[in-house]
Amino acid sequence: MFRYILALGLIILGAVLVLANIGIIDFQIDEYWGLIIPLVIMLLGLKLFIDEFKYKGGSWIFGSLLVIFGSLLLLGELGIIEFTFSDIVKLWPLLIIYVGYSIIKPGRRHKTFVSEKDDKEKKFYDKKVRRLSVGDHEFKQPNWKVEPMNLWTAAGSYYIDFTKAFIPEKEIPITINSWAGDVQILLPEHVAFRIDASVKAGEIKIIDQTADGVINHSIFYESVDYDIADRKLDITVKLKAGSIRVDTV
């Protein structure tokens, strides 16, 4: 639905600009740019919100934030209220609402598709998703066993030391999702791994690769022996705000 709305909007905008360029209608895009941007932000937020409930990788939290932010920007441009881009900091109490909702929100089960090298057959397994929590988490006990994990945190940091862990000879998926916090991962050089890391606002540093700036950064890194290794870690980290750091020793 969203792509059809976007396509229709682009078609209409293109047609209007063509008519304006040949003098049939009077249209100055500079006069309407202040209205177009809030509408685009609202549509993007609506898509993220809907995709979350359709299990298509969206985010109801970030989506609802964009819808609210875009709506306030639009009202500001229309002169109904006083609100500009810099006023986004005034929306910080929404984080409290999101955290409160996450505490009472029931967990759900995800079905994940993984490849097992032992029998070379593709299998499905059910993996429990932890209820969202607040606080720091550490995995650094001597000889702790690495198992498939799907970790969700509203606010807090993760420190995961795989150099002290027992890692079975198979592909092990690790997923970390957090709204706000830092993720630091320490990996042994002899263990193959790949990591898909993304952050909405913050920075990422994986070995010798770095991404920082304002918004929306991602890095995908895969060790050279990942495909042929028996023991390997498939790591996904997604943050709304914070930093991601991965080192090897």
Order of helices and strands: HHHHEEEEEEEEEEEEE
Classification by helices and strands: alpha/beta
Helix content: 25-40%
First CA to last CA: what distance? 48 Å
Low-pLDDT segments, ≥5 res: 106-132
Tell me the number of strands.
Answer: 13
Main sheet makeup = 9 strands, mixed
Strand content: 35-45%
Mean pLDDT level: 75
Q: In angstroms, what is the radius of gyration?
A: 22 Å
Number of helical stretches of at least 4 residues: 4
Keywords: Membrane, Transmembrane, Transmembrane helix
Organism: Lentibacillus populi
InterPro entries: Cell_wall_LiaF, LiaF-like_C, LiaF_C, LiaF_TM
Domain LiaF transmembrane: 6-110
Annotation keywords:
249 residues, alpha/beta, 2 domains, nine-stranded mixed sheet, two-stranded antiparallel sheet, 4 helices, 13 strands, 38% strand, Cell wall-active antibiotics response LiaF-like C-terminal domain-containing protein, LiaF_C, Cell_wall_LiaF, transmembrane helix, membrane
How would you characterize the overall build of this protein?
Keywords: Membrane, Transmembrane, Transmembrane helix. This protein is α/β, with parallel strands linked by helices. It has two domains: 90 residues, no CATH class; 142 residues, no CATH class. The chain is 30% helix and 38% strand. Helix 2 packs antiparallel against helix 3. The chain starts with a helix and ends with a strand. About 11% of the residues have low confidence.
